[in-house]
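Re-run with default settings, no changes from the original entry. Doing this only to confirm the output is reproducible before filing.
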Amino acid sequence: MIFITNELGKRALNEAGINKGHFMLVPTIRGFLYKNYWIKQILQCLQAYKAYKAKTGASEQPHTKCIIFSHSDRLADVAWAYALKRKLKGCYWVASFFHVVPPPLLYFRHPPTLVINDIIRWLENQLVIKIINQGADAIFTESTYIKSYFINEGYKGKFVILQGGYEKDLFNRQALETKEKKYDACFIGRFFEYKGIYDLLKAWMLVKKDITNAKLLLIGDGPNYALKRIWELVLESDLLNNVVIVRNPTDAQKIKLLTQCKVLGFPSYAEGIPLVFYEAMYLGIPVVTYFLPSYADIKPCIIGVKIGHIKELAKALEVLIKNDELRTLMSRRAELCASGHDWDNLFLSFINQLDSIGII
């Protein structure tokens, strides 16, 4: 068995327990507008194709199973996989796909430079959908919403559905347990507008009207323009004493900070199912978010409000922060939802699903 993927794809497959067979790696390229992007992609595909032919003598050994695994739904990973699939007719292509990017200008009105980025990202996502629809033998995703979306687009292949999880080694609940909750809510993720971080700050201004000392913890990082906008909102809304920012902590530090929060606020505009949901729920921390179609599988586990409704977002946060009994109830429900979502169990499910559809 031969796997053609990149370094990140190899790591994911190895962690899933797939270690048998020969791995041939295509270099990972980040970013859509990469210098000499297409030249590099073509050269990489040719290199992988030559290596594959040399290794297997594919025409002489038709019994050798070949699997192409694209690790992400970015064009940089999908382009080479599609090209190889076209050339290596006997190979299976398992394509990862996690979320549908909303059309540009649907929610935000950006400066021209950012609008161009939004348009490029949306066009890239639409192109990736078409490529996967035409060439992939199976789609690896984390929600039944994505499955339904591709079926509606006419996709005839198979699906591997696996939601995210948490690392057991990092999540020793007893060791992490803390009675002191320093923060009323926290956000963990990249500091971008579509992640809802600006909306969360606007909602926090409303929360502060009823809970004067309400503390919000922001964990992550982002580009300078996003950090600048965050500080503008903090100063404009008089939140200097109500917001704490921690940039780029280690995984262990992040989890320790998470345990000190009453609620996770994550009002993103476009997601699959974020890993941080399961990390928070495993620790018994309720999740307040904008409800997205991809969250349908976990609807009972989270508190979702309509996209862009900042007053509803603030109300949901405030009620959970003030109502200890309700928060305890939601905490227990969250723990039940996260039960069994450690990576050991998930990787076993991943292998079983690949086996059931005849990929391995």
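The longest strand covers residues 183-190. The chain has 13 helices and twelve strands.
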